[in-house]
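Weekly structure sync, notes
Attendees: PL (lead), two postdocs, one rotation student
Agenda item 3: pending single-chain targets
PL asked that the sequence for the first pending target be pasted directly into the notes so everyone works from the same version. It is reproduced below exactly as submitted, 390 residues in total.
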Amino acid sequence: MSAKSIAEQADKDVETTKTNLLGLSRAKMEAFVSAIGEKPFRAQQILKWIHHSGVDDFDAMTNISKALREKLKQAAIIQPPEIASQQDSKDGTRKWAIRVAGGSLVETVLIPDGDRATLCVSSQVGCSLDCSFCSTGKQGFQRDLTAAEIIGQVWLAIKSYDAFSQDKRVVTNVVMMGMGEPLLNFDNVVDAMSLMMDDFGYGISKRRVTLSTSGVVPALDKLAEVSEASLAISLHAPNDALRNELVPVNRKYPIKELLRSAKAYIDGQSDTRRVVTIEYTLIAGINDSADMAQDLARLLKDFPCKINLIPFNPFPQSDYKRPSRKSITQFADILTRAGFVTTTRSTRGDDIDAACGQLVGQVADRTKRSERHRASYTETQAVPITIADR
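Predicted structure, written out during the meeting:
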């Protein structure tokens, strides 16, 4: 190794011993400044510089004394992940591949819609679950993202539009619906969401920050104690037999238990108008029949929710098909007549593989799941996929 390489590695080793302030919630930032002998109000100043102004250089924090800036340089860094590539869809959707520590890539998507723009944020490198209709699950799983890597996706999205300097709100909504199961990375996701909603962070309304879960019930039970984010449930089936196949975590936490936990979360919120968003991916011949719609209406009859139908978005290594427009309309009409507020999600960004269920990134899979899926698909691609006893 050359002298230059040795020096560069030494610099990296020093950096890893420092605290990355980008991912610290307000409470943790106050604890950090206290630990270096400063008063709590300094935390608010630092948070505003990082999340309001997009600053990653302590010398740019001009309302902080030079002595404190030097102290911060010794103890801390502000280090976002790195944008590896950016793709812009013809419909205005923008997707980033973001390189995180270790070299893997996760994907983040911004979906503009009139005055609103929703950022779809990832929480894991890959996904530790394996829902059959989701491309991310087929990539396997490497690790959880840090709080800095999660909130860093918001920071980078705003930075990419040069919106910090313009004091312009590029991101109006955030959905934790990217790669990964958020509740399996509980602490880091909670810290990141607290920054999204904190006035010294991004100041996004708690009604506009949504956590989507496949149903990790113990973590959902715990969430009500620490967060007021909106909640979405990835349901996708009206009965346990089918959901066991589509969303395998259902075998551990069945629908009745999941809905009980979700209702408890909503009931525990100070805003009594809150409801759960039920996400239901419509897959041709699997869960899109009129009978399934009627079963779903009966299941959710007394549950405080609105329903978001998501037509399946195809991806490699899947034989599932998108339903016909007629099937989608029929399914939605049955639910609407049953009294549910029902929307059908428009497919956005599918020309850059940024639509719901298509995010893949680049995962150094330590589960070997991606290898097994490729082998299985190669062996069975000529055989139509059906799910029995639904």
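Discussion points:
- The first strand starts at residue 19 and ends at 20.
- The CA atoms of residues 132 and 246 lie 5 Å apart.
Action: rotation student to compare against the earlier draft before next sync.
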